Amino acid sequence: MNEYAVVTGPNEVRIERLLPGPIERVWAYLTDSDKRGTWLASGPMELREGGRVELTFRHSNLDTQKAPTPDRFKQYEAGKTQIGEILRFDPPRLLSLTWGDPGNSEVTFELTPQGDQVHLVITHRRLANRQMMKGVAGGWHSHLTILLHHLMGTSSLPFWSIFIDLEAEYEKRLSED
Questions:
Q1: Which of 6, 14, 53, 169 ranks highest by number of CB atoms within 10 Å?
Q2: Core vs surface per residue 143-171: b (16+ CB within 10 A) or e
Q3: How many helices, marked H, and strands, marked E, lie in the chain?
Q4: How many CA atoms lie within 13 A of 154 on its CB side?
């Protein structure tokens, strides 16, 4: 399993992780607002196909240690909310939803038990361009690093420190061919 996100289609990236289980615990970190808010974004989620999803991103709240917000993201320091819709819902194995305003891309979470661990695959589709693919890949990589630490009961580096370190790597990995 590759640690880094990979391009799997013209406007699509995928990233995988093997996480401490059980599957119901990882599912809760995807669907429960409080748990999701510790690694990604909080907000209500109507857990059914066609259900409304409200994600409020507050990246500085993900940190146990504080790191400065990069200047280009300072406008979102108080939070950024996006509304989406659940497209597919099969607990605790599959969650697919629209992403961004107004649902301009799609994210699918697939969970498969592997012994006492869970194989998580995130596929982000319908990304507008290569630059967005790089940002999304680095974002998912950063968020999943924090999720892994939460599931292991350890602390991680601040979100922005992780993200900034990964930017250059994804710039090389996902550069134009």
A1: 53
A2: bbbbbbbbbeeeebbbbbbbbeebeeebe
A3: 4, 7
A4: 8
Query: Tokens standing for 166?
Result: 């990964």
Beta carbons within 8 Å of 104's beta carbon, 6+ residues apart: 98, 126, 128
The dihedral formed by the CA atoms of 29, 32, 34 and 40, expressed in degrees to the nearest 10? 50
Hey, which bits of 100-154 come out as E strands? 105-114, 117-125
Would you tell me how many other CB atoms lie within 10 Å of the CB of residue 45? 21
What domains can you pick out in the chain, each with its CATH number? 6-173 (3.30.530.20)
- Condensed to tens digits (0 to 9), the pLDDT of residues 114-154 reads 999 999 999 999 999 988 999 999 999 999 999 999 999 99
